[in-house]
Write a structure and sequence with these properties.
alpha+beta; single chain; 23 helices; elongated; six-stranded mixed beta sheet
Length: 691
């Protein structure tokens, strides 16, 4: 039988400070084992701490023992807390050396299983087969019990396995307990943990031996001691005036967000927030659970919303039509420019072909001197260099000749809004009349061929067996567009569609627009009418306008605008995208007029732009560049008299959730899935610090 500590050192029974000689104690254990034995026995029987032991030979060493106060001991039993510290890595760099990352210390007397635990707490990511004795902490997220028969002891035992995580890694903890008829010890240990796991997790500190498990084929910890501890302190929102999050995703944002709506609402309530918006991608399934979690709006106001996919259905097939028919004369044209911004860029080439009675009867083309350098990227795309346009006429000399060629004809272009915007701008500048009927083959092809994957000129040419040579040269593109348009005219004639002005009503323009580029938009309900309109928009987007995502046509949204508040959303929103595409302040102001408020987000949300090789992100290399994007949105808000709101675009509650979202992003094929943006729920102070 193991001797009691009182038998070895009777003079410490009064729990006073003593210096105890152990030179007469006969031991055969190593000095380390003597130290562990003394420490465990002293703490177990006296709540005292062994502060110094065995500096010399074990027969001659003095041990200094400081007794603990009973009140301190009782407090430790109640709190059982971890004293966290900045993480530090210990261990050498030599081969085979065991490294560990220490994150805190524990000094626990009251355990659920085993003896007292006093040790450094290391991260689970530090644990491997060579770690030996270690102390870890974490949340138990699964627990199981099996009855096994121990042959050596000839009795039944409980084999308890627990899966724990500390958000750096996860590991299985195993322990064996004797099976008795009453099973008091087992029930006292197993039952509270099982209940805690069902409620979301039970936090423990475990000391044990890390070893390779032949049954599980992985490293496990064989527990020697286990204690319950309080969960890590959760951050709180201490701001006197709380923010409201207007851009929040739940698990119902398919393959994109990970947090249950109940946890989101609970967090907002615990922080004292007065409201929170639920804005899942294209769906509203979280609404009932959000209402329930809010105790039916008794604890917090739920702002019901959706992040929609907005498509522009405002483009018409034909503009300014009178009595023109499919038998009219047409001039199909294309332009090349120095850039996309119609406010600042210039035309470098115009090419046009005339179509009469279904045949190409004439051609016209010219270079245009833009009176500014052609960017290298445009030169690589079009093949047009500064030298090629140096001796060309300027646009004021070119336009009269082009208008003469197009006289009494319908102007036709693929994506006519772009081409005609440059022509109209320069015509107005030089006092020229540009009152043409205009037909857009891009919109027409979307309506006529709804099953094509896209409606680029080369796709349309291939579909209609038209040869496209020297793509991105004006005359060649105009010729290919004309050949494709001739075949479209044949189809229109066969279908009995002859009047051009009737084409806008004979085709479903909204359905034809569902394959347009979609932009994110935040739609919030401010009353019951708005809530009903959100339901109707979501239903129609899934039933009638689904293309990869449930699209919402702008015209439909305008019809259902009553009771809704519209936000410009994230970097995939219409306003932010236009800014990245080089739109002028005037154009951005025009876009902003459609929204009720504009949105900016923390720099980390858009940090991917600094890594991307996409053309629109070419000038974004630093955090300052990202700050300037937010500042420009703020400036547009001031120009437009629109409020600007900072949102988190929440996809997980805490930053640890990024590890789970990585899995979803990898599954969806994102190359940068490992570089997760910090899309977590921030406090008011955190958001103020961000901006």
């Amino acid at each position: 039988m193991k001797p009691k500590i009182y038998d070895i050192f009777p003079q410490i029974a009064d729990e006073s400070l003593n210096q105890i000689s152990i030179d007469r104690v006969r031991v055969s254990k190593s000095r380390r084992k003597i130290k562990l034995y003394l420490a465990e026995e002293i703490s177990e029987e006296l709540s005292a701490r062994l502060t110094q032991t065995l500096k010399k030979d074990c027969n001659l060493t003095d041990a200094y023992i400081v007794s603990g106060e009973k009140s301190d001991r009782d407090e430790k039993r109640i709190k059982n807390t971890i004293v966290y510290a900045p993480p530090k890595t210990e261990g050498g760099d030599s081969p085979g050396a065991v490294k560990k990352t220490v994150i805190g210390k524990v000094d626990i007397f009251e355990t659920m299983y085993g003896k007292a635990i006093r040790d450094d707490v290391v991260t689970l990511s530090s644990i491997n087969d060579n770690s030996g004795y270690c102390t870890v902490s974490g949340r138990v997220f699964a627990i199981d019990d099996r009855i096994i028969h121990a042959k050596k002891k000839d009795k039944d035992m409980h084999l308890i396995t627990m899966d724990i995580t500390d958000n750096t890694d996860s590991i299985t903890v195993k322990l064996f307990m004797d099976k008795t008829e009453e099973d008091e010890a087992f029930n006292k240990f197993f039952t509270p943990i099982k209940k805690g796991v069902k409620k979301g997790g039970f936090y423990i500190v475990c000391r044990g031996i890390a070893q390779y498990d032949e049954y599980q084929k992985e490293t496990v910890i064989m527990a020697k001691s286990i204690a319950a501890v309080s969960p890590p302190a959760r951050k709180d929102d201490l701001a006197p005036k709380k923010r409201v999050e207007l851009h929040m995703h739940t698990q119902m944002s398919q393959m994109d967000a990970i947090s249950p709506v109940e946890e989101i609402v609970e967090r907002a309530i615990s922080w004292g927030h007065t409201a929170v918006a639920i804005t899942d991608h294209g769906v509203v399934q979280s609404f009932p659970d959000a209402m329930k979690a809010s105790d039916y709006n008794q604890k917090i106001k739920i702002i019901y919303g959706v992040e929609g996919y907005l498509v522009d259905d405002g483009k018409k097939i034909v503009q300014n039509a009178n009595d023109e028919t499919v038998n009219s004369d047409f001039v199909v044209f294309d332009i090349e420019t120095t850039g996309l911004d119609r406010e600042t860029e210039e035309i470098t080439e115009i090419g046009a072909v005339k179509v009469r009675n279904g045949e190409v009867v004439d051609k016209w083309s010219t270079f245009v001197n833009p009176k500014k350098p052609i960017p290298k990227s445009n030169e690589e795309l079009t093949g047009i260099s500064d030298a090629m346009v140096a001796d060309a006429p300027t646009i004021d000399k070119v336009l009269p000749g082009f208008f003469e060629f197009a006289k009494d004809s319908v102007l036709v272009a693929h994506n006519a809004d772009f081409d005609t915007s440059f022509i109209k701008r320069d015509a107005k500048k030089y006092g020229l009349d540009c009152d043409f009927c205009i037909l857009d083959t891009l919109v027409l092809s979307r309506c006529m061929f709804p099953n094509l994957r896209n409606y680029k000129l080369d796709t349309i040419s291939k579909h209609l067996n038209v040869i496209l040579e020297n793509h991105h040269r004006a005359l060649d593109d105009a010729k290919a567009t004309a050949d494709a348009f001739v075949k479209m005219l044949e189809i229109l004639k066969n279908e009995g569609k002859t009047s051009l002005k009737d084409l806008n009503t004979q085709y479903d323009l909204r359905n034809g627009a569902k394959k347009n580029r979609a932009h994110h938009i935040i739609i919030l309900a401010k009353n019951q009418t708005g809530l009903r309109h959100i339901y109707e928009l979501v239903s129609q987007s899934h039933l009638n306008y689904f293309f990869r995502t449930p699209r919402i046509p702008r015209g439909l949204l305008e019809e259902k605008r009553e009771g809704l508040i519209l936000g410009s959303a994230c970097e995939q929103g219409e306003l932010f995208s236009a800014m990245l595409d080089g739109a002028s302040d005037a154009e951005l102001k025009k876009i902003a007029a459609f929204y009720d408020y504009l949105e900016i987000q923390p720099l980390g949300n858009n940090a991917f732009m600094k890594r991307s090789d996409r053309k629109e992100y070419a000038n974004i290399n630093t955090d300052t560049d990202l700050e300037n994007l937010n500042k420009r949105i703020l400036d547009i808000g001031k120009l437009s008299d629109k409020p600007v709101c900072a949102t988190c675009d929440v996809h997980f509650l805490d930053m640890e959730g990024a590890d789970y979202r990585k899995i979803l992003m990898h599954y969806k094929g994102f190359d940068d899935a490992d570089f997760q943006a910090p899309l977590y729920f921030r406090t008011t102070e955190e958001m103020l610090d961000e901006f």
